[in-house]
Amino acid sequence: MSPSRHAVFGHPVAHSLSPRIHASFAKQTGIALQYEAIETTPEAFTASLAAFAASGGKGANVTLPLKEAAFKLCVDVSPRAKRAGAVNTLTRTEDGANWRGDNTDGAGLLRDLGDRQGLDLRERRTLLLGAGGAARGVAPALLDAGIGDLYVVNRDSARADALIDAQGQPGRVHSRYYTDLPALGEFDLIINATSAARNGGMQKLPMSLIGARTACVDLSYGEAAIPFLAWARAANAHEAIDGLGMLVEQAAESFQLWHGVRPETDEVYEALRGRNAALVTAD
To answer: Of 188, 193, 195, 214, which has the highest C-beta tally within 10 A?
Structure first.
């Protein structure tokens, strides 16, 4: 039997740990799998995905900055992808003619924070930095997990407003500007969903945002997570967590969608952590 062909699309994507993760899952479950990283710009994404499908591609993960573009290319999307307005997992439809979209980011984040990190998210006053595809993927899941009020801050306020409007909870989800941050007080949970650090442009954040029980989470891992987590530790955050665990957990969710079996994740996570994941940047 020829291996099932899958891939991760992104820009940049050569750094991605996803091929290694899915190779580990395939070995664990005895599934024949070919999984590669495909570099494509947003402008070339549609053509690249079409070429992948024409060559037998069955499923794909989508990372920065293509998640919202992937949503628009799907003939059908899951309820959680629809709420997010972004897709990170593509599955070829049964007739082979189109793509079905899902978003496993939120589920992956909750599994990591709850099961692995032991965080109780209920009633946590939460600050979400960013309003792109990554932020869109996790916001609905955080609200469903029972966090308190959610404040979204983004350089482009229109994108933040669009994310907030999509949640349909105007009394609970709020848009603010970066200039508002010093007056917002302490948060129980701060999530960095921006890619600014990858481009050397992380916004300066006031330490007054962090209190004695604040958990700071970067959805990136490796070098891209270093500036935000360094700020969190300097401000004595209770937890400073990178996105490696989320990456592994969302990958397991995608693997289950494609192959019908959920792999074990702890061993894969520990192996990646032990290989110094700080040498790579964010998915």
So the answer is: 193
Is the per-residue pLDDT at 276 higher than 80? Answer: no
SS (H, E, C) 125-190: CEEEECCCHHHHHHHHHHHHCCCCCEEEECCCHHHHHHHHHHHCCCCCEEEECHHHHHHCCCEEEE
- In the annotation, is 67 catalytic? yes
What local confidence, expressed as pLDDT, does residue 206 receive?
97
Tokens 């069955």, located at residue: 58
CB atoms within 10 A of CB 120: 11
Every domain range in the chain assigned CATH 3.40.50.10860 = 4-104+250-279
Q: Are strands 210-218 and 187-192 parallel, antiparallel or unpaired?
A: parallel
- Catalytic one among 67, 72, 82, 204? 67
- The pLDDT tens digits of the residues spanning 214-273 come to 999 999 998 889 999 999 999 999 999 999 999 999 999 999 999 999 999 999 999 999
Tokens 């289950």: give the residue: 256
* Residue 210 in this model has a pLDDT that exceeds 90: yes
Pairwise CA distance, residues 185 & 207, whole Å? 10
Task: Give backbone dihedrals phi and psi of 6, rounded to 5 degrees, phi first.
Answer: -135, 170
CATH class, range 4-104+250-279: alpha beta
75 Cβ partners below 8 Å, 6+ apart?
Answer: 93, 98, 99, 100
Tell me: the pLDDT tens digits for 96-148? 999 999 999 999 999 999 999 999 999 999 999 999 999 999 999 999 999 99
Residues spanned by CATH 3.40.50.720 within the chain? 106-244
Q: What is the spatial distance between Cα 110 and Cα 249, in angstroms, rounded to a whole number?
A: 9
